[in-house]
Amino acid sequence: MNKKIYLSLLLLMFSAFGLQAQFEISAELRPRFEYNDGYVGVPTDQTEPTYFVSQRSRINLKFNQEKYRMFFSLQDVRVWGADDVATGTGSYMNTGSTGIHQAWAEFNVFENSRIRVGRQEFKYDDQRLLAWRNWNQYGLTYDALLYSYQRENWQFDVALSYNNDASKGGSAGFGVNNFDLDPIGRRLRTLNFIYLKNQITDEFSLAMLN
User: Read out DSSP for 49-62?
Assistant: First the structure.
């Protein structure tokens, strides 16, 4: 009898919770075979074509509520067989293939505006300047703060970001502003932009990105 009561209360709690918020789980599995002959450079008699299978695996968690939203995406990208922990009988894992693709929280701050902070994708217009580059297996995300205002046919976005490399800091590590100021290899030190768009008709719009 007690078990039935507890179960009924639990279902009632989840039903009430579902009226105010929504929790979604999704996944993606994308294997891809590639044959490269002349990739990067022009093939010669001394070069040989390469072929391999890569795979993207993602699990996504999304939480929607009236005033805020959260999204988390865990990603693993690997080439079949290219594991750094393996034996002669099989593969165990690749220690560098799994990471966080997206992890952000978004809040409604004023009417028609919101703030999103964390690791996120940027996709604007035809994605010639800012894109998520979904053609490759890794995709592309940014650690940034985004303010977005949308009203009727207008959209106004401001994004700010600053990247550090903890491995270049002093013994204090995180929390102390003692990181090198040099660029982090090939990574961007900072990415800041302003985006303004007016959707004049369904087929025509004007946009500015600075």
Answer: -EEEEEEEEEEEEE
